[in-house]
UniProtKB/TrEMBL annotation:
Residues 112-296 form the Mur ligase central domain. Signal peptide: none annotated. Residues 4-103 form the Mur ligase N-terminal catalytic domain. Residues 319-447 form the Mur ligase C-terminal domain. It comes from Thermosulfurimonas marina. Pfam families: Mur_ligase, Mur_ligase_C, Mur_ligase_M. One of its GO terms (molecular function) is ATP binding. GO terms for biological process: cell division; cell wall organization; peptidoglycan biosynthetic process; regulation of cell shape. This is UDP-N-acetylmuramate--L-alanine ligase. It comes from the Bacteria. Keywords: ATP-binding, Cell cycle, Cell division, Cell shape, Cell wall biogenesis/degradation, Ligase, Nucleotide-binding, Peptidoglycan synthesis.
Length: 466
């Protein structure tokens, strides 16, 4: 009889990937969620044939009697199913500890860490390894578009893991990426985030410092060398160090980007000389993400020509620069929520589409986005759009008032910069009130799905001949 894992909070995107990996290894999997899961996790669970238990029921664990209860990091210690598990003496595990103990043994973990670009870079890395016949195992925070899954269980030597710096569980207040004991890593960036658990940048930087110090001497650290903070961090690692970026001091240099309708051509140089690759993603930040993947894989011994070819075939990730509709107007969905990610994504979309105007539908949903720490930064970066529709996030009232993002103040700051501002309260009509016309670009940005509004908007645009 195989082990049975009960995933408490199975509707999270990371938990859905863990469920897939556990099932692929032959384990039994079940789980619960407070409400029916939303996309994209619900899509993964449906593909897996997993129907989560809806609502919390302490008696359920007595009936199921799993071998392990895996606790999502949003679950509190007083949760009724946690208390039931403890009464029964069931072992509690965090998601990263479960990966470490049951998925990663026998693999060489390649961990992608950083404030920005983790999902896209991890997906690129997993996709290229797969294309090159390496049969990787992978755990991602987004769904690959070609299969609409966020995990893969391969027989090859490498395991690609998106390395989150958020804490692991209420009983394990350590960053997730410490657990994975990376053999090699990509470090894309480091800016302040997760204000709910890191009081300042220094505390966040300390978490990353430990991560790079855990890399083994025989491993490899590929880091963005244009950021002094990352250069200093990299110096703390025993692993071999390779940098990438724009500056001539980097081991792998981004020399030139040439946009084309569905992406860009990237020219670079490295120890092997100059080369190029096509990339079906927009923006300099994604050119750098791809260059990091190329640097890691070439340094691990793969052919630079084969890596470059595979990068050009990349399928993309759902909710990362995802084109939902392209008629006389274009509609794009993106996960960006940190001010830097918002800025870089909007600049990339401007470069790609040369729109007449950008209308941005923005939801500050993450624990940090809902706090006032980014108020002035949001006022600046959201003004890259000509009009902004703000969606009040759920749970905003739970943030202490002194720390809470003031959406009215955000709107006033945008209006002072000459931008039109509205609120998403009545559905698609609030977006149509901006009167989109040919040549406009409508961009959704949130860490969560906007649900039915996508299809409602596309239908309305088609009815208007747009």
């Amino acid at each position: 009889m195989s082990l049975h894992f009960y995933l408490l909070g199975i509707g999270g995107i990371g938990m859905s990937a863990l469920a897939g990996l556990l099932k692929a290894r032959g384990f039994q999997v079940s789980g619960s969620e407070g409400a029916p899961p939303s996309p994209p996790a619900s899509q993964v669970l449906k593909r897996l044939g997993l129907i989560p238990f809806c609502g919390w029921d302490p008696e359920r664990l007595e009936k199921i009697s799993p071998d392990y209860v895996v606790v999502g990091n949003a679950i509190r210690r007083d949760h009724p199913e946690v208390e039931a598990a403890r009464r029964q003496g069931l072992p509690l595990l965090s998601l990263p500890e479960t990966l470490k103990r049951f998925i990663l043994p026998g693999k060489l973990p390649l961990v992608v860490a950083g404030t920005h670009g983790k999902t896209t870079t991890s997906a690129l890395l997993a996709f290229v390894l797969e294309r090159l016949g390496q049969e990787p195992t992978f755990f991602l925070g987004g769904l690959l578009r070609d299969r609409e899954l966020n995990f893969g269980s391969g027989e090859g030597p490498y395991a690609v893991v998106e390395g989150d710096e958020y804490d692991s569980a209420f009983f394990e207040k350590t960053p997730k990426f410490w657990h994975y004991r990376a053999f090699s890593a990509i470090l894309t960036s480091l800016e302040y985030d997760h204000a709910d658990i890191y009081p300042d940048l220094a505390s966040l930087e300390a978490a990353f410092r430990t991560f790079v110090e855990l890399l083994p001497e025989e491993g490899l650290l590929v880091f963005w060398g244009d950021a002094d903070r990352l250069v200093r961090l990299a110096e703390r690692s025993r692993a071999r160090r390779v940098s990438y970026g724009r500056s001539p001091k980097n081991t792998y240099r981004l020399l030139e980007r040439t946009p084309f309708p569905r992406g860009q051509k990237v020219r670079f140089c490295g120890p092997q000389g100059e080369g190029t690759f096509d990339l079906p993603l927009y923006g300099e930040h994604n050119a750098l993400n791809a260059l990091a993947v190329l640097a890691l894989l070439v340094e691990l011994g793969l052919s630079p020509e084969e890596v470059a070819r595979a990068l050009g075939e990349f399928c993309g990730v759902l909710r990362r620069q995802e084109i939902l509709y392209q008629g006389r107007v274009t509609v794009v969905d993106d996960f960006a929520h940190h001010p830097t990610a918002v800025r870089e994504t909007l600049l990339a979309l401007k470069e790609a589409f040369s729109p007449r105007r950008i209308f941005l539908i923005f939801e500050p949903r993450t624990n940090t986005s809902r706090r006032r720490v980014f108020l002035s930064a949001y006022q600046e970066v959201l003004s890259l759009a000509e009009a902004v529709v703000l969606k009040p996030p759920p749970g905003l009232e739970k943030v202490p008032e002194a720390e809470r993002l003031d959406l009215t103040a955000l709107a006033r700051g945008l209006e002072a910069r000459g931008r039109r501002v509205g609120f998403l309260q009545n559905g698609v009509s609030d977006i149509l009130a901006l009167e989109p016309s040919p040549g406009d670009l409508l961009v959704f940005m949130s860490s969560a799905s906007f649900g039915k509004i996508y299809t409602d908007l596309v239908k309305a645009l088609k009815e208007r001949g747009l």
